[in-house]
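Write out this protein's structure.
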Amino acid sequence: MTTKLMGQKVQRVEDQRFLRGQGRYTDDVLVTASGAGVLHAAVLRSPHAHARILDIDVEAVLDAEGVHAVWTYEDLQGPMAEPLPLLIPHPALTHGRTQFALARDEVNYVGEAIAFVVAEDRYLAEDAVALIRVSYETLPAVVGVEAARRAEHLVHDDVPGNVAAHLDQRVGDAPAAIAAAAHRLELDLSIERSACMPMEGRATVARWDPDTDRLQLWTSTQTSTGVRAAVAVKMGLDLGQVDVITPDVGGGFGVKINHPWPEEVLVPMAARVLGQPVKFTEDRREHFISSAHERGQEQHIEVGFDDEGRVVGLDVRFWHDNGAYTPYGLIVPIITSTQLLGPYKPGSYRVRFDSVYTNTVIVTPYRGAGRPQGCFAMERTMDAIADYLGKDRTEVRAVNFIQPEEFPYDHQLVFQDGRPLVYDSGDYPASLEKLKRLVGWDEFPAFQQEMAAQGREVGIGLACYVEGTGVGPYEGAHVHIETSGKVKVAIGLTTQGQGHATVFAQLVADELGVRMEDVEVVSGDTRRMAYSVGTFASRAAVMSGSAVHLAARRAKEKALKVAADALEVDESDLQIVDGVVSVKGAPSSAIDLGTVSVLSNPLRYAFDEASQAATQFSVGDPGKPPVAEDDEPGLEGRDFYSPDRATFASGMHAAIVETDPRTAEITILKYAVVHDCGTIINPMIVEGQIHGGVAQGIGGALYEKMAYDESGQLLNASFMDFLMPYVTEIPDGIDVDHLETPSPLNPLGIKGAGEAGVIPTAAAIASAIEDAERHSRPSMSIAAMPISPSELYTLRQEHTA
């Protein structure tokens, strides 16, 4: 019997192609030796954070060499002249606003698109953009949460107080419980803005075929089907007239789930008008100032607890900076408000947030999507309780854990998908014990004393989280067994490095009984899978994995039915091993899947030697129709998976850090992760996801921030100024252990893993830094992230005895 691939460390099938430089990205599409025939676009972007547009003069552009066309808002018509869509409305989003493809009358952040130029090449297009003259009336800029809250100036004149939304959820009476508690604490915390920064920026290529009235669009996106629908509406086309193909994507991390970007509708519009393919590829500065950021929040927490550290009431108020527009709705702050609770069960809980406008780049999810902020709030609170009571930090967490026998656990809140926040499975006490052993928690005090004797300051910290994964509403898959015996799998998801071609091939090989090398997975092509949601929120394995499994099962059922007729046996007597259907116990009575595929089509043309067992044409039994009412020609399966609610992965991180007593440099000496994503498909890929996430988390904890000045200019819009961790800043070994508590909500028992590594990192490192510093400065607390050496040095000065 073939060895099951589920749970095995199977080498990624994608890697060799990428390592050999054979990746094919959007910028590679329609490139010939000379590049002939493809026009290139460039965008004029606002230099001001807030200004009225008084006049746009494009006269000099029209006669410029190589320029084919220029558009401003006044040139847009019909749906193209309407605002871009608000993708996820919410009743609490009372003042949602989205931008136009090209600014109309006013700009609201540095980088907003104003004019669109198409020329023979990118150099000419950029030169032409520089010829456009715009007259502005500058307006006061609102930068940062505090300025938005003061509302001395408004980002949008029709949005009172700069408040896009206010949301309030509560379970029990938290203020009363806190007032009656034995102990009470208040904390003020903040998280700075950061951004995804994938290696490949946004890119779009379009080709219009006037003979068929069809549009082909290639774009670096996390949702090819969403882009397809948006472009069809904006261009007044039927959905069937638009094909969106997502080639290789050089990273997404959330920024490419927003759609459509202005360029994703402007490029196809230009291609249709000009009758030539048009391409846009943003440069790195454009990505900094005109894509999306995330993370920025200010938080106030009040907590009441008993002598054991058990939380009896938790009251959280926070303010979320959503930038100049809200195309992705309230997803980020809603996730913060609900995922903040982590693995704990407070006696009562109230959370309120305002999502506020600022004259800065829009906010959409960035890996973790509101969870790092929520985890920071909860874990800093747990550390504060432990410090107040003089207890070990692990003890305080343990007394607040949801217990294994309490699952499914209903928090009585509404999650991001509009469904109840109900945890499906987990074992948090077991995870904590694993983490303590992995990082050496109980042995650390002796090590800390040893280091102190050498004049070195070291500290240990931990953080726990729960992550909602596998949010709906659905994903689908199509599995087709070719007459060659090869299996072609189509999924609607896009892929940007997660290993989809490997893990989904593992699932199909297991279910169908074929060799993994005979399975090919195609993703992100609306010609192959027209309906999908997208790759985000750690949902690929849960959603598409389940759909692939179900579709493969359908194909297998049909294969066994056809083979049973051919071999004249009962279906239950058959098995499929290495692509061959045989009778159990009688391996000589067999037929390969390729031949079964031929037989599945009543029009049995057999053009290859392998299929000679089939006749050229046959209608089968004359007593029944060639194709039954409940069947269809071909050997394939198609299915969709739609869950009742999200699954909930969980994990715990611990870090040991050293802080230099003179320079305040922060070095991570050891990092440990215990992770529970339910049933694991491929442990090697899961560990890779965790390692990458931890690296991004370290960036968010120690380096990455968007530095705006008071006028709304981004001061560090390049990799010369925006700090990111190099391999030298990542610990040599990230120790990972797994716990598997299968989810009861899907056929494979899986939960998501993609965002796990980044969620608790800042909280764990803050805890460790504080522990390292507390021996010299007992009153010091880490209340803001990221933290730089200079900021730590300043904190030291403020807390020096």
